[in-house]
Amino acid sequence: MIEIRGLTKRFGSLPVLSGIDLDIAPGERIVVIGPSGTGKSTLLRCINFLDRPDAGTIRIGDLQVDAAKASRAEILALRRRTGFVFQTYALFANRTAQGNIAEALLTVRRLPRAEALARADAILRDIGLSDKADAYPAALSGGQQQRVGIGRALALDAPLLLFDEPTSALDPEWVGEVLDLMRRIAEARQTMLIVTHEMQFAREIADRVLFMEGGRIVEQGPPSRIFDAPQDPRTREFLRRVR
Amino acid sequence: MGALDLDYMLGLVPVLLRYLPLTLGMAAAAMVLALILAVILAVVRVLRLPLLDPLVQLFVSFFRGTPLLVQLFLFYYGLPQLVPAFAAITGVQAAIAGLTLHFAAYMAESLRGAILGVDRSQWEATQAIGMTQGQALRRIILPQAARIAAPSLLNSFIDMIKGTSLAFTLGVTEMMGAAQKEAAGSFRYFEAFLLVAVIYWVVTEALAALQRRLEIRLNRAFAR
Questions:
Q1: Taking residues B121-125, what's their average pLDDT?
Q2: Which of A101, A196, B96, B118 has the greatest CB tally within 10 Å of its CB?
Q3: CATH code of the domain made up of B20-172
């Protein structure tokens, strides 16, 4: 069980998250939608402290972190329980595809090298990139890079995967392969929190859709309700514009 | 007199080359030490470590702001007056120490700029997978910074090789000192010093060629 309570973040005097409460059940797949600049990415980045929240608590399993007094060790522990997929992939430029995936296993999990590489190879097979094991990120297409990015996030078997607009930076031709991979991960009932503008994808895989605006969760529910019968006028207005 | 005495110069080549290992040895030792020190100084500055950061800034300011020759004289001739234990160090040791501190200051600034030049997303990715700051620096950030800083670090090494000639002023008989002694006997100063210049030139050009090859190699992972 994952519990987020009162998560708050300001940039200077600008409130970006205004006390977000969110429970995520094991295996639940949540998609966050909403206009740009409404705190969707910040919500994800605050959950693993890439952006430090100003207030609120995050509980993942038996680990509870209070933003107001989180220690360095607690933040590390929290990050090790979440996988994060970046919009811009952010692959380690000095590591091969295999090396990117193995990095956390070597440094964080401290697995013996042979074991870490074997595990990375298994993930490369899963994401369909065994033939690119030795390729550096610069030699991979956008779609391939993002699949490695997802593979890297999978490596630690984290209880929660966070996807921050994983297809937004991709050329249209690569979006399909990344969504296909995410669909497969979703089918395995991996707990996921996904920020995306891919509405069709959200409808297919989400157990629950959150609509955010102005740093708040305005409306949430199963995709059929959010997409077909939204209650809040802001949700209706947003969906009308993106369709 | 007047004309260049080529035969004399050629005869002097093996004499001066005998001191080349000393020159290169001093430069190599100082380079290794300066690199280690520079990495530490750069990391202190990038992480803005409290207490240490202002000290490092002072260090860098002093060693970049004063001439190498003055620094060498301060260590070798000045310090033993204050701290008698320093009287035991040799000219070679003092030269290596002086070169190390002087060039570490320059190299720390190059490295600091290079670390800051590594894309922010690389830091974020290390954080996202739960790496510690130390692991991130050692495994991801510094290797990428090294690639950015490599040309300027190699320039520092070339400057350092040339800087070893100042060890002559600390009474060390290296190439410059040997040329001085030879010329004092033959009065062929031009030939002797020209030969010293040529040897330095050849060595630094060889390094520049190495530098070009190294840069190609370092860029390999980043080429499409």
A1: 96
A2: A101
A3: 1.10.3720.10
